[in-house]
Design a protein that fits this description.
It is built from six helices and 20 strands. It is α+β, with helices and mostly antiparallel strands. Helix 1 packs antiparallel against helix 2. It comes from Marinicrinis lubricantis.
């Protein structure tokens, strides 16, 4: 809005030329009076100058009025602009709220299926919600994740070394993360523990690309903070997904909401076990399900078909089985929530998913 100071400055600039002309005329009039020898021509000249001065004075008054009119017009324009801007802002806010409304309704609906929330961690980077899993034959935890920035989640190698290993709790503490979940499978060789098959870290392939074989899949997070996964025959296929990080294991449980056929081997070896699952919803919220398993003999924990049915009830879109058994670990706020099935001991692993405030 135009201030009084700015208006005064405008008026000075507008009238300055006229004031200068008037001052010059008055100065000339004074000089003529002082130097003239003939009073008659001097009087005539003085009258002529006075008439011109009066004429200029009238024009100055007209200019001042014009400047005032312009100032008032500008003031009205500014006020009109401010009203229009406020109206547009209100419309934008209303439109944005309406745009997000379907997402909020969907999120409330899927969250209600998870039950009573028992924990929450929220920050500008991330929102984590913790729910209990209490099914007839198994129990555990579900962690719903909203990634708000690229700094909210990452995957790390054991001790940050290819072939290195450490427990998920150790990785969480070393990085100062707020939560952690075990990631992909591994293979042991010469006393080292290597990530299984295709592994991506910081957008780079850790040990190259491996075409899908048998029942292996790749799953990870891309640059758009979306869950990407599946079977990839070529590096070009996976490159198109722009993964930031990810790991490999078996098998795929759900794809586009449809339960996938589970290979017979994974139905019985073992039949029941501690499980870790990574999944997503239609609005790209993530879900990690960690199932308790008290031993490695296949007598406790969940079967993969049971998990498929559970995830389908939750309305999950895609779901991938991660390394389970003694590898299954969920760290929340510095504490391991599940009971490790390796005689209560945490297993050192090759890869971990970490979450940050």
């Amino acid at each position: 809005m135009m201030t009084v100071k700015r208006l005064n400055r405008f008026m000075l600039l507008a009238t300055a030329p006229f004031a200068g002309v008037l001052f010059w005329i008055l100065l000339m009039n004074t000089q003529l009076l002082l130097t003239a020898s003939d009073p008659k021509p001097l009087l005539s000249t003085t009258l002529s100058m006075q008439e011109k001065a009066d004429e200029i004075s009238v024009k100055l008054e007209d200019s001042e009025q014009m400047a005032l009119n312009i100032s008032q017009s500008m003031q009205k324009t500014i006020e009109s602009y401010e009203r229009i801007t406020a109206t547009v802002n209100d419309l934008y806010t209303t439109a944005a709220a309406q745009k997000d409304r379907p997402v909020l309704i969907y999120d409330q609906r899927i969250t209600a299926k998870l039950g009573q929330r028992i924990g929450v961690i929220t920050s500008p980077n991330i929102e984590l919600e913790l729910y209990p899993v209490k099914e007839k034959n198994y129990s555990g935890y579900a962690m719903k994740v909203h990634l708000k920035s690229a700094d909210a989640m990452k995957m790390v190698l054991g001790k940050d070394q290819f072939g290195g290993s450490e427990t998920t709790l150790q990785a969480v503490k070393r990085y100062g993360a707020i939560a952690g979940v075990n990631a992909g499978g591994f293979a042991d060789s010469d006393g080292k523990r290597y990530p299984l098959s295709t592994t991506v870290l910081n957008g780079e392939y850790v040990s190259g690309f491996f075409p899908t074989y048998k029942d292996l899949f790749f799953v990870g997070i891309n640059k758009a903070l979306e869950l990407v996964g599946g079977k990839f025959e070529s590096r070009e296929e996976l490159d198109k997904q722009e993964p930031m990080f990810g790991a490999s294991f078996v098998p795929i449980l759900l794809k586009n909401g449809i339960q996938q056929e589970i290979p017979s081997k994974w139905l019985t070896s073992p039949k029941r076990a501690a499980r870790t699952v990574i999944a997503n919803y239609k609005h790209d919220r993530l879900l990690f399900v960690v199932v308790e398993g008290n031993d490695e003999n296949g007598r406790t924990g969940a079967t993969l078909p049971e998990l498929q049915n559970y995830l389908s009830r939750l309305g999950v879109k895609d779901a991938y089985n991660l390394d389970g058994g003694g590898s299954t670990t969920l760290v929340w706020n510095g504490k391991v929530l599940n009971t490790p099935s390796d005689d209560g001991n945490l297993r050192p692993l090759a890869t971990h998913f970490l979450f940050f405030k």
